[in-house]
Amino acid sequence: MKKTASTPAKIRHREFGAFLRSRRERLDPAGVGLPQGFRRRTPGLRREEVALLAGVGTTWYTWLEQGRDVRPSAEVLSALAGALRLDAAERRHIYVLNDRSPPDEPQAAGPERVDASLQRMLESLDRQPAYILGRRWDVLAWNHAASIVFGDYSKLKGDERNIMHMVFANEGHRRLLVDWDQIASASLAMFRADSARYAGDPEFERLIGNLKQASPAFRKWWPKYEVHQPLSGRKRLQHPIGGRMVFEYTSLAVGDPPNMRFVVFTPVDEERTAAKLSSLLRSRKTDSKRAAGKSDRTAEVPTPAR
Questions:
Q1: Tell me, which fold does domain 9-97 have in CATH?
Q2: Burial 25-40 (b: 16+ CB within 10 A, else e)
Q3: Looking at the chain, which residues constitute the CATH 3.30.450.180 domain(s)?
Q4: Which of the 8 DSSP states describes residue 138?
């Protein structure tokens, strides 16, 4: 007999069915409010019990576990996720297996923290300026090269350390950006797309209100409702010491859930950017050593006897 080839859809159906069964078998009846009963020959819940908890028919649920060509709706997937006590990753998994978009995760609130592993990765990029942005585009962490190129973020407080504030309300940063009009309009469109997940958040609303007051350009462009996805591209800078520099930049979603962005700037050959960056890094290192040496010599001066 000729064996029928499995299509990707059939494979996903079988994977989905096996996943449902594995999660059903790990549950304890008492843990979901069902009586233990007698004569349970297999671990976990029975199929009819899962069907009851999810509000679907037993036969239909059985077809799902058997990997039949059944396409559950998003509402049914949500009900199954609740019945089987799935966590966030497991919920996303069953939506993906059924070729449906996972529902939006609840958005985190409160202080944001950069994990130690991300911080180490950031600091390891000694020839690439890089920083990590929070959900509101606040600069949460940065490396030494970023301070050399973009300025010392540690001197900025509150909204001053926000990328949108720096682009639209920081004249020094604006002078750094050669193609300010293009970068500012694209940044606003990307920020608007990101901020949609946090519509109504008081901190976002306050930032947007302040930017409308501080920047005529922001006030003019915000009502246009332009939205863009995060892009990779080139950014031309006019550094006050290094002169014209050109970087390729890439933005990567990080964290769990991925509410942060890891932004990396790679120097290109144009305008001898890599050589200029190396020179700036060496100069700052030399200045730091001189400052440290001067401090040590000052500390060693004996106090005159009286």
A1: 434 Repressor (Amino-terminal Domain) (1.10.260)
A2: eebeeeeeeeeeeeee
A3: 116-290
A4: B
Contacts for 116-125: CB closer than 8 Å, 24+ residues apart:
118/254, 118/260, 118/262, 121/262, 122/262, 125/264
pTM listed for this prediction: 0.71
Q: What is the DSSP string of 1-64?
A: -PPPPPPHHHHHHHHHHHHHHHHHHT--GGGGT----S---SSS--HHHHHHHHTS-HHHHHHH
Beta bridge partners of 198: none
Rounded to the nearest 5°, which phi and psi values hold at 141?
-155, 155
- Backbone dihedral angles phi then psi of residue 112, each to the nearest 5 degrees: -110, 145
CA distance 119 to 144: 12
Which fold, 116-290? Beta-Lactamase (3.30.450)
Closest CA relative to residue 167, chosen from 181, 154, 153: 181
* Cα 109 to chain centroid, rounded: 14
* pLDDT per position as a tens digit, 40-95: 677 788 899 899 999 999 999 999 999 998 889 999 999 999 999 998 888 888 99
- The terminus-to-terminus CA distance of the chain in angstroms comes to 109
Give me the phi and psi of 264, to 5 degrees please: -120, 135
Residues of the chain with CATH 1.10.260.40: 9-97
The Cα–Cα gap between 165 and 249 comes to 19
φ and ψ at 73, to 5 degrees? -75, 170
pLDDT in tens, 110-132: 788 899 999 999 999 999 999 99
- 244 and 238 Cβ atoms separated by less than 8 Å: yes
